Amino acid sequence: AQVVQAEFVKSSVRTEDCPPSDGIPEFALVGRSNVGKSSLLNSLVRRKKLALTSKKPGKTQCINHFRINDSWYLVDLPGYGYAAAPQELRIDWAKFTKDYFLNRSSLVSVFLLIDASIPAKPIDLEYASWLGQNQIPMTLIFTKCDKRKKKKNGGKRPEENVQDFQELIRDFFQTVPPWIMTSSVTNQGRDEILLHMAQLRNY
Ligand code: GTP
Ligand code: MG
């Protein structure tokens, strides 16, 4: 299930502009701005700068397709909930990513990233609920599990935040979505994610 080859293919702002799907399976990384989507992609492909990352939220602004092992796609998406983005731009992001989730037929599963180092934000629940309502196949990826608790975060450990989040979203799904704890710093969860993706591709 390891990545031996990865290349950037295209940035798109509309589902229609995405590369032809041709039955090539793809997985999309979605989550709040700054949650670590681009960092996770780099961790999965063992490259430091294939997807661009930043300390400042709002770095990724398009639907970015990366071809993996010449046989499937990883897709890096803009984050939601970036308060400093102009209102118009935010609505547009929500629109084009949601259109992509609903209309990209080769999308096998959305990987919803949740920051495990802090308590979940209301907007994370909104997104999880929206995905559940629209029956979009989803995998929960908890990020930044390497970060230790701080008083200002309510003093909770990543494991506790993960449990709280699962409790909060239970009613949104008929079956509990699969979930994986990760860190792009220690590469925790990398093999588990790649194996999970390989299993989903073979269905
Ligand atoms: P947008 O493109 O703005 O939506 O953000 P993103 O979700 O792609 O986040 P990005 O990967 O750019 O990472 C944001 C910040 O979080 C960077 O400073 C990363 O170094 C940091 N970060 C990402 N993943 C981890 C992690 O697993 N652990 C720690 N400690 N920091 C992380
Ligand atoms: Mg990004």
Attribute tags:
203 residues; alpha/beta; 5 helices; 31% helix; binds guanosine-5'-triphosphate; binds magnesium ion
Structural shape: globular
Write down the Rg: 16 Å
Helical fraction: 25-40%
- Stretches where pLDDT falls below 50 for ≥5 residues? none
Q: Sheet with the most strands?
A: 7 strands, mixed
Strand line-up across the major sheet: 1-3-4-2-5-6-7
Residue fraction in strands: 15-25%
Mean of pLDDT: 90
Order of helices and strands: EEHEEHEHEHEH
- DSSP strand count: 7
SS element count, helices:
5
What small-molecule ligands were found? guanosine-5'-triphosphate, magnesium ion
Computed structural class:
alpha/beta
Give the end-to-end Cα distance, rounded to a whole number of Å: 15 Å
Structure summary:
Its cofactor is Mg(2+). By secondary structure, the protein is α/β, with parallel strands linked by helices.
List the topology elements.
Elements: E1 6-12, E2 26-31, H1 37-45, E3 63-68, E4 72-76, H2 87-103, E5 107-115, H3 122-133, E6 138-143, H4 158-169, E7 179-181, H5 190-201
Parallel strand pairs: 2-4, 2-5, 5-6, 6-7
Antiparallel strand pairs: 1-3, 3-4
Bound molecules: guanosine-5'-triphosphate and magnesium ion.
Magnesium ion (MG) binds near residues 38, 60 and 76.
